Amino acid sequence: MITIEGLTRVRGRARVLHEVGFTARPGRVTGFLGPNGAGKTSTLRVLLGLDRPQAGRALIDGRRYADLERPLTVAGALLDGSGAHRSRTARAHLRWMAASNGLPKGRVDEVLELVGLAPEAGKRAGKYSLGMSRRLGLAAALLGDPPVLILDEPVNGLDPAGIRWMRAFLRDSAAEGRTVLLSSHLMGELAETADDVVIIDHGTVVADGTLAEVVGEHATLEDAFLARTAGEGASW
Amino acid sequence: MIGAVKAEVSKLVTLPSPAITVALTWAVTVLVRQADPPGGAVPYSQAGVLVLGVLAAGHEYQRGGQIRATLLAVPRRPLLFAAKTVALLVTAGPAVFVAALLAGEPGATGGLLLDLLLAAGVATIVRHPVGATAVVLTAYQIVVPLIRNGLPDVALPPAPVWSAAIIAAAAVTFHRRDA
User: Is B151 a residue whose pLDDT tops 90?
Assistant: First the structure.
């Protein structure tokens, strides 16, 4: 369970987040939707203790991420890039991460197998394609078999087969009772995957509910999204 | 804490660049000692030790953004900073001792370890390995000698004071800053 309340973050003179609040429940995929620069990544970075808010709080099962003793067993996160140093092998990267949380070495080979990277585990991360980097990032997120998954644009850089795999994986994770929160700017993708939808625009939550509630009388999630975000698609 | 130290040690020993730096430092020290320069070989070992300290802390911030993975794995920053310091001393300490031995001055080990920690502190603050290398090498090779020669009456604070100040500043920035 992820609980975000009154999250406000200011950077310089720009208001990045303004009283952002929503919950992501176990057993459901919550889609966090918004145009580029709306505050999706900022919200996730605060939730993961990377950035600090000026007000409000973001909790995972009632605790701040930054206070967790073995965070990888509580929440797995996938952010932009794999997080691995370019000259380290994928296996070495996952090994240090496992050691940091007291996880057995054997778990590294399990997650490499799970994301389909086992044959390339000895390659340096800098030699990985974009899709492989994402898989390595996901492997790291799954190391501690966490009940909560937090993923920033998880299908970015994946080929069609990878996208289908990711979608099934996220659905299965929710079916197992995990809390899945994923951000995306791809409506079609979210309409296929999410149970609940939160829409953020200019740092403020503008819609929050089940997929059916958020779509409402609009024909598609995309229509609902553009109506809620004042159709800014034309501005670029 | 033990897990965090193990992880940091593992990161340092599975990265090629620190190992290469140690090998080069030893080689340069041996070669320079043959030439028997007036100041001894230690100042040359020192340059390698500074690079080693910068790489150990600065590799987190190179392309790839490993620092985020690090903070996701160990989000408690004071503990992480302590684990990093311990891991650096445990892994690089013996290598630095060997460099001092090769320079013929095993007694220089303590001073070199202070240089190592200072360089790691600068890299933590600067978050850019090349920039941090430029800062420490300029300070050690140019600024300090200039002050020593130009203003012989000015008493510079001793090395432990410098190192302690930089490490404290690095710990505070590391704790406060958004990653």
Answer: no
